[in-house]
């Protein structure tokens, strides 16, 4: 009987040792997985911080536009900069796409300022890309009788933006450049669009938005 109890005790300790060994490997595996997970999370956080710093760096480039005599005015209600020389001006003939002669010089100056700003941003932020949206706008009638979804309105407003783009090219102003960093999108919002002038006639205009494109770090 005593021998039998001794064998039972040996079996217990062998089983206990196997159990502890198994638990050790389980804990070791969990520890390794935890370390790997924390390392991955740390890399993700660091990547996001770098991307955020890049965004803040780009935003700093717009600060010169807030200074006096910059040629631009900041509209807080829609977070947009507009050209001071063309603010509230009817730069197009009614229902037409040709720029009025008295606004040609101002349009050239605005184009040169924007081109200069893009050049500065590209030099200060290598590796980033930019989208320039050139948007044409339309003014409705005094009684607002034209539908905001008028196809004709979208067509003419697009042609106004295209006319400005062609006018700039004719005067040596090329927003795209030769480095494939800037993409220009020509669009028309018709009788729609944000930040329209309260004086409806003043919406015979165009607007330009510069959108920095921050590439993910892992690209």
From TrEMBL:
User: What are the UniProt keywords, alphabetically?
Assistant: Membrane, Transmembrane, Transmembrane helix
Which superkingdom does the taxonomy of this entry point to?
Bacteria
What stretches pass through the bilayer? Answer: 12-38
* UniProt keyword Transmembrane, yes or no: yes
Instruction: State what protein this is by name.
Output: OmpA-like domain-containing protein
| Species of the source | Profundicola chukchiensis
């Amino acid at each position: 009987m005593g021998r039998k109890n001794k064998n039972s005790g040996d079996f217990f300790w062998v089983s206990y040792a196997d159990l502890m060994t198994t638990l050790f490997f389980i804990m070791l595996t969990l520890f390794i997985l935890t370390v790997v997970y924390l390392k991955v999370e740390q890399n993700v956080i660091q990547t996001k911080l770098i991307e955020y710093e890049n965004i803040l760096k780009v935003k700093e480039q717009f600060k010169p536009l807030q200074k006096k005599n910059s040629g631009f005015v900041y509209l807080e209600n829609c977070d947009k900069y507009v050209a001071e020389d063309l603010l509230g001006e009817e730069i197009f003939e009614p229902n037409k796409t040709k720029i009025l002669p008295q606004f040609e010089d101002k349009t050239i100056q605005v184009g040169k300022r924007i081109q200069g700003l893009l050049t500065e941003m590209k030099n200060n932020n290598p590796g980033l890309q930019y989208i320039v949206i050139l948007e044409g706008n339309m003014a409705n009638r005094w009684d607002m009788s034209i539908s905001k979804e008028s196809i004709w309105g979208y067509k003419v407003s697009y042609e106004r933006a295209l006319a400005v783009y062609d006018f700039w090219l004719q005067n040596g102003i090329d927003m795209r450049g030769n480095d494939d960093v800037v993409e220009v999108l020509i669009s028309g919002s018709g009788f729609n669009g944000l930040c329209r002038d309260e004086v409806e006639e003043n919406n015979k205009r165009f607007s330009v938005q510069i959108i920095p494109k921050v590439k993910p770090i892992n690209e």
